[in-house]
Amino acid sequence: MSSDSRVMVITGASSGIGEATARVLVAEGHRVALLARRGDRLSALASELGDQALAVQADVTDYPSLQAAAEQVVAHWGRVDALINNAGVMLLGPFTSDQHEERRRMVEVNLLGAMNATEAFLEHLEASGGDIVNISSVAGRTARAGNSGYAATKWGMNGWSEALRQELLPDVRVMTVEPGIIDSELREHTTDPDVKAMIQTAYDSLAIPAQDVGETIAFMLSRPKRMTINELMLRPTAQQ
């Protein structure tokens, strides 16, 4: 390991932006703790990435599992230098009773899940003078009909991130990334058939690779400690 190798914890690391970010960070010489519910996919990814990766099965809606994950990461590598709160679900659809459980799920994963993970790892981040990267969305800035529940979680993520930034400065940097249409499993989450068909059309024509976001996150984390890219929105160039 190089002297500037850091230990990065990534939630939702089994696919999409989480997986892509892990690949980018390992390629740059860092170590990554891969957190997600799907242990088989985590193990396969960790095996592929080698000794710089550690698979830790955990659910961001289950705080005790995150506490155990934090203990496992610190026992393995002795420190935590960054937490990337990436775990999320996108369940778009009209605001009806049919979506009641889906709205609850989005709040628990997208917003409370990020808070849970941050709580579990915060003391280690404070000890190392580390970084927190929260993955929000363009939907956290531009709400549209049919995405009210999802947008609420992402607007909440943005507000929480800014308050957390002020609370933790200057010891822990807090950064927020707001991607647009990215090629990931998010497109598969929506259950409303009409909305899902519309999403698929948009993704097929516009989506950019998750690696683009991973490289952006790596760049933000690489900035000198004296500065922080606190908030960054990125979209496919053709996205309105």
Report on the structure:
This protein is of the alpha/beta class. The chain has one domain (7-228): Rossmann fold, CATH 3.40.50.720. The protein is built from eight helices and nine strands. The strands form two sheets. It has a seven-stranded parallel β-sheet with strand order 3-2-1-4-5-6-9, with helices on both faces. It has a two-stranded parallel ribbon with strand order 7-8. α1 links the parallel β1 and β2 (31-36). α3 runs parallel beside α4.
* Main CATH class: Alpha Beta
Report low-confidence residues grouped into runs of 5 or more.
none
Order the strands across the largest sheet as they lie in space: 3-2-1-4-5-6-9
By CATH, the architecture is named: 3-Layer(aba) Sandwich
What is the quaternary state of this protein? single chain
Our estimate of the beta-strand percent is 15-25%
Could you state the CATH homologous superfamily?
NAD(P)-binding Rossmann-like Domain
The pLDDT mean sits at 95
Topology-level CATH name: Rossmann fold
Radius of gyration: 17 Å
Number of helices: 8
Distance between the termini: 42 Å
> What is the 3D shape?
globular
Return the domain count: 1
Helix content: 40-55%
